[in-house]
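pipeline/complex-builder :: batch 7 item 3
reading input block
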Amino acid sequence: MTLHERMAAGSAAVAVLMTCLLPAAGQNSTGSVHGTGSPPNLSGFWELHFDSRNLPPASLKPEVAAEDPAIQYKKDMTEIRWCHFIGVPYDMEGSPIDILQNRNGKEVIITSSLRTPARHIYTDGRSHVSPDVFDPVSNGHSIGNWEGETLIVDTVGFSEEGMTRIPGGGHRTTGSHLIERYRLLDGGDRLSVIFTWEDPKTFSQPHTYEFRYYRSPKGTEAREFDCDANDPERAAFLTGTPGKPR
Amino acid sequence: MDQGRKIVLKSALAVTIPLAWIVAAVGQSARPNGSVPDLSGFWERKDEVGSGSFGGTLERIPRAALKPEIIAANREAAARQARGEVVSLGSKWCLTNQYPFFMQHSAVWDIVQTDNEIVQVPEVHTFPRHIYLDGRPHPDAAYLQPSVNGHAIGHWEGDTLVVDTVGFVGGAGTPGGGRVGPKSHLIERFRLRDGGKMLSVTFTWEDPSIYLKPHTYELTYHRSDPGTYAFEEYCHADDPVQGGSVVEPPQK
Amino acid sequence: MNIKAFGLSVVLSIGIPAFGHHSFAMFELTKDVTYEGTVLDYRWENPHTHIIVKIDPGAVDAGTVGTWDIEGGATNIMGRQGWNRATFKSGDHIKVVAHPMKDGTKGASLFYVILPDGKRLYHDIARPKGEGSAGSSNP
């Protein structure tokens, strides 16, 4: 090989090598690419489509399975009619949700278009607040940690405020314990969230289901679905017989 | 050009082009990530001078230069309030608090910051406020959906986050006697102070239907203690006590 | 939008906490009265926490004898100032500084309580005139 040929071959090798290294060089704040040693970035708007849910039926305690469904229905409609906070898990269906993973690694926020508090997931190593002083809330108290590429979120401290119905069956109570696993799929285009509920009052065994969100298009904006409990037409619609004129 | 020179030229291009690409990409990622201040965390107002009451904590805000009809409306409302009338239907019905309400409230609020977006998360019953940093403009007026928090876009000028907001539903008041209307335009400047222990936010409101000239004021916030967590300020419009007040107990 | 209705809603949202559904003008905000007695009921709730306090005859301030409804703030406001649902319970002794009702009703707006160790728990961020706060969350 002549000198010139060696130079050409060497340059080509450098070019190929640089091209391969390029994706790892930058922090993509909207996608799955991340630098070595840092967790994946879940930030972005995420939405549920018709094929986003895998919902096996829950194994309910006999007394819960025997409950009149009208009771839960009435409770949920009351919360909607009076614009109460919604809480987990329903606010995870307030599509699109916006996940912001703080650049300092200490917190992840999940907002929805519903008028309900954002979820705060504290990833700074803290423990749950003592139940002696913690006021139960609709979103509970969430702490998170990374296991490789998966964000594990542990939530306790739920109140009974809001839409308490759990997908697949059962309902959130003050004794509920939720573990979620967040993981990017398809190169960052999809987000898998596996929910596992434990509650001795409700389930005879832990109840697990999975959502797979689709990343919303670039430029997606947050929506505000406001709520006016003083709107008489709204109240009449939500509390009346469907289709019956007022 | 002889063969040798062609090879050298091709080699140079083969190296230069990817290197230029890499430099551009690294530069793109290094500027936002490494060079802007971190505003994230919980922030709270404090009564730094001892004002005597919550209302007193806002008395030092300079008065807005308001149009005469707005001044007249303010006076009438204040007179009714002084007579002790129960006038806040918003509270009784748990209506959504409009921006900038939570910025002057006693409750803490949380900033979560990514490269493309900042969200301010209040505790009061309202929506989180999204500030888009990805270079998007405001939507065309024909497509702008008025909202509680308006449509907010931001960019960094050195260490200062400059936020431009339009598209408010309107209805909130501002310190200094001003108010927010559907045509109001807000420019805010967020800047850390005291080594990151404090956050200064300067608000400038423009609205020719309300103000005679832009209304500017500053509020400062203290970083909350580590371990601070968000509460939820629930509001139940169906609870009779929501519309109530002090009730003299039985005198046994 | 109707200017008058607009002005009304605006005035009330400027300097009044979220649950100022009643006008704070009903209280004498410049008058601080000390109520010292026994907690009959401690209601940790929204929109306002209420502490029902009974003050027996023989109190230092004879004008405070009776049973009072001391109204505090929302639980998140008070919680940030160091209160929680277990701060008081029925039977506890309490020393509270509050702004009385103008019309003589035995009710008052909480300013702060003084704990046995001298520490104060405030209603919200407001501090007595000249006693500004800075530093940690609840000095």
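note: The longest strand of chain A covers residues 177-185.
queue -> next item
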